[in-house]
């Protein structure tokens, strides 16, 4: 199982459907090195992660500062949820979230009437939007995914009310 080296967080105000903030929680890897492909993909380097916390500390932050155990959380696809479950179990930390998870990738495909899911960049292109920040950085990905979710939920509200 791959190590989680960054967690992107972007709370959404459920009433106004607006993104509130974005945050990157960096995690120092224990079993692997940051180089090559990972650095190219994420821009994260060993130097950036030198003072990062542990996975356990990151989970504690999610629970204490974001009330992760009692909130719905969302991600693009199911990969992140499975990673949190697996890494949490492997390290004896547990799963930091409650039982409610929303797969925005599947929701987006369903909203389009498609059986084929696409990546975040493809969804932004489909919506005629430009992604913000650096693709594959946790905070920027969370920010961009939250934008897609907010737009979908606004459309749903408009259609239902």
UniProtKB/TrEMBL annotation:
It comes from the Bacteria. The keyword Oxidoreductase does not apply. The keyword Transmembrane helix does not apply. This is Sporulation inhibitor KapD. GO terms for molecular function: 3'-5'-RNA exonuclease activity; nucleic acid binding. PANTHER family: 3'-5' EXONUCLEASE ERI1-RELATED, 3'-5' EXORIBONUCLEASE 1-RELATED. It comes from Kolteria novifilia. Keywords: Exonuclease, Hydrolase, Nuclease. The lineage of its organism: Bacteria, Pseudomonadati, Planctomycetota, Planctomycetia, Kolteriales. SUPFAM superfamilies: Ribonuclease H-like. InterPro entries: 3-5_Exoribonuclease, ERI-1_3'hExo-like, RNaseH-like_sf, RNaseH_sf.
């Amino acid at each position: 199982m791959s190590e989680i080296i960054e967690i992107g967080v972007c709370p959404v105000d459920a009433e106004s459907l607006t993104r509130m903030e974005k945050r990157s929680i960096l995690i120092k890897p224990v079993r692997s090195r940051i180089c090559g492909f990972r650095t190219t993909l994420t821009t994260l380097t060993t130097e950036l992660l030198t003072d990062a916390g542990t996975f356990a500390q990151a989970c504690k932050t999610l629970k204490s500062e974001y009330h992760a155990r009692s909130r719905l959380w969302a991600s693009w696809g199911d990969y992140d949820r499975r990673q949190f479950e697996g890494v949490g179990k492997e390290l004896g930390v547990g799963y930091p979230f409650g039982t409610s998870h929303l797969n925005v990738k599947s929701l987006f495909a369903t909203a389009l009437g498609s059986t084929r899911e696409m990546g975040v960049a493809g969804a932004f292109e489909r919506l005629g939007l430009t992604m913000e920040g650096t693709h594959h950085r946790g905070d920027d990905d969370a920010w961009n995914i939250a934008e897609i979710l907010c737009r979908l939920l606004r459309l749903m509200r408009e259609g239902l009310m």
